[in-house]
Amino acid sequence: MIGLGTVGRVRRAGLPLRRTYDGVARFGEHVTFFVHVLAGIPFAVRKYWRHILREIGDVSFGSASLLAGGGTIGIVFAMSGVAAIMVGVETHRGLELIGMTSLSGLLSAIANTRELAPVVASIALAAKVGTGFTAKLGAMRISDEIDALDAMAVRSVPFLASTRVVAAIVCVVPIYMVGLLAAYIATRFTVVTMGGDSAGTYDYYFHLGLGASDLWLSLTKALVFATIVALVHCSYGFHASGGPEGVGRAAGRALRTSILAIGIADVAMTFALWGIEPSVPGLGLS
């Protein structure tokens, strides 16, 4: 006879294996969903372009944005400005220690363009837009609306997820540009107006460090990050379960996953796009 204690120990011993199996299964579920969403983009653009336009309006400005003070664009402008002020403060203080504050413009051009602007825009997109995607799709899932779409022969993945991915990709361009402009203005204000550095010197080194290729590569990062955010949040909402509480848990997990994915992708793309060795084309340094 096998005692109850033995059965309990066997179950506890198999618990890590069970959790690993469930984790791998969920990962495969998300990856499969990503493939279906990306494959459904051409169909969604051709069939549901009105729905895409409606999503673009919600993502860019949000509902009742004129009354609420701005949607995602306002959030990105504020976040980029605050983060760029800290870049300006720390850059100026660090260079002041070695008597090279004249290079503040150079570091502002590199740091804001290559790292700060795309990452801040993507995190703001995840926090404000991505969680909205998860909540809406999760609510539709637990109320069986997605099953109803499938029953009516409406392809739910392209209609609900691919359209939102396209909207996020389109909208991140102006959102990113507003954030980048806010970062440039905030850093220059901090260094020149507050720090007392020469405006001419700052602008000279800023334009030396800012190349056209940097802007295109930085925009590429923002587009990739927006795609990651939309895919992750749509997937968690589409597979939500457990009622309203489950939707809330899915939104939290989606936000954590998307921010972690943005960090990993940022490191990988920085090395892939700008190389291992540092380079500043305007100064002839490479």
TrEMBL record:
One Pfam family this sequence matches: MlaE
Q: Name one GO molecular function term.
A: phospholipid transporter activity
InterPro entries cross-referenced by the UniProt entry = Permease_MalE (IPR030802)
The answer on whether this UniProt entry bears the keyword Transmembrane helix reads: yes
Q: Where are the transmembrane segments?
A: 27-45, 65-89, 165-186, 215-238, 259-276
Q: Can you supply one Gene Ontology CC term for this chain's record?
A: ATP-binding cassette (ABC) transporter complex
Key words of the record: Membrane, Transmembrane, Transmembrane helix
Is Membrane one of the keywords?
Answer: yes
Name it: ABC transporter permease
Q: What is the organism field in this record?
A: Tomitella fengzijianii
